[in-house]
Amino acid sequence: MEQTRRDFIKGAGLVAAGAAAFTGVSALAGCASQPAGKPAQEAKHECDVVIAGAGIGGLAAAVSAVEAGANVILVEASQKVGGTSRFAAGAFGPRFGAEWETAYAKAPMSDPDLGKLVCDNWGSYVEWIDGLGLVTEELAPGSPYVWMGGKRPAEEGSKSYTDEYLQQFGDIFTAKGGTTLLGTRAVKLLTDESGAVTGLVAEDADGSFAISAKAVILATGGWQCDKEMCTKYIGRHADLSQAQCVPYLDGSGIKMGVEAGAQLSRSFGSFYGHPQPWPMSYLNGIDTPEGYEAVENVDDVHVLYYGTTEHSIQSMGIYVNTEGKRFVNEGLGSSLVNQEIMQQPMARAYLILDEGVREIIRQTPFCNAAIIGGDRIDHMIEKGMTVVQADSIEDLGAKIVAETADGVSFNAVNMAATVAAYNEAVSSGQAATIEVPHVGTVPATPLSTPPFYAIPVVGGIMATFGGLKINTDTQVIGTDAQPIAGLYAVPGAAGGIMNGDYWCVMSGYSVLGRLSGEVSTAYAKSAGK
């Protein structure tokens, strides 16, 4: 069932994000009382296409539009382009392959039309960015994945030249004649008497101003920084989750679209992310606009949001919630396990390991990737993350209660019973048939060799799946089921392409971004005539 515009406005959170904060739906409603098409001030800039958001999708849209002959302005809240993709390991592509029938069989809740569009155009997209001079390197022979900027030597500490690639993407846009306004945040769409979108209002350090345009592309990302929206759409404790993204993703583009009459997509109940060790004091403020803008080496952010999470070691231990009970098959992919953690009390869990499992982790290359080197758990401790250690399961439970944040709510007796029952099932070969099975690529291993470890985690959100409803031309669909003239959107401002599990985050943003630049330019040219 489609969500209604009224329900969305009622539930959307009003979150500030730095000095140029988006003022929320209620403020936009106040602006809407002005005559349609009459900005509060005379337009400071005029262009064919204006794009809100310079993440990987917005960059693809910007370069595509300027190549198609448009006069393009790109506005970005941060002082750097690239968005959350700056934090990525750097490999991107359709996760289940570029053959849509095969991918759809593995992601059957995805939008079939948008999904097919991404798969069918992935090969030509890679050819396009290669033609721009952006270096890519095949992840493995026959793999649809490519490394952004190429694979980096292991001794350099990261997996690819991700940020260099994204900054070069922004430079290509500028070299082709585009204009980028950094430290500038889109806050309101402008419309004419017919409801067609004619530009936007933006804010920078000097205040607000209007940009007049024939077409607008919303590439502002998702809404994981809006805690009220997280609670409304994901779960009652999702406001306690960690947003693993640039700190500007408060759903502002979605809210602007709704205020202009847009319809919402499905998929608001699922998302992509990894369990995040908690408490998060080790982040040292990088999840705030001020802290993020002060980061000198973005690889440091990647390490904290991705490189040191236990997403690659979770299948080798067991997860228990604060009640001390297993609730998920640890062999599922990290994103699915993470979504189940989000539904637990306080959106929290504990990963329980023993020394035998830790030795497997030490010997497994993926668990000790080049960005970390050596022992992942040692690395987590060095970064200031909480890892509880004890010589018996009973002592481990007592230490969890005594030494971890909110540990008083942890049921140590249940945890000990859970581990005992799990060990018995594993020893008898029944791990796959117990009430919560343990099935995956790594065989279940008994937790019986001291010392024992517990890593407290909270659900993390890197990308949200719900947003504005779009068609295969990336046009935003109104509540009347018709495209809103002049308005386009790219995931995550657009939604519905994924549902349940992820399969095309950066690749989907990229392909649809490129398409959006082309079709919005064609519209702008026809509108000009």
From TrEMBL:
Entry keyword annotation includes Flavoprotein: yes
Swiss-Prot/TrEMBL keywords: FAD, Flavoprotein, Oxidoreductase
Highest taxon of source: Bacteria
Keyword DNA-binding: no
Cofactor(s) it depends on: FAD
Pfam families referenced in this protein's UniProt entry, alphabetically: FAD_binding_2 (PF00890)
Domain (FAD-dependent oxidoreductase 2 FAD-binding): residue spans on this chain: 48-500
Annotated TM spans: none
NCBIfam families (UniProt xref): TAT_signal_seq
UniProt name for this protein: FAD-dependent oxidoreductase
Organism (species): Raoultibacter massiliensis
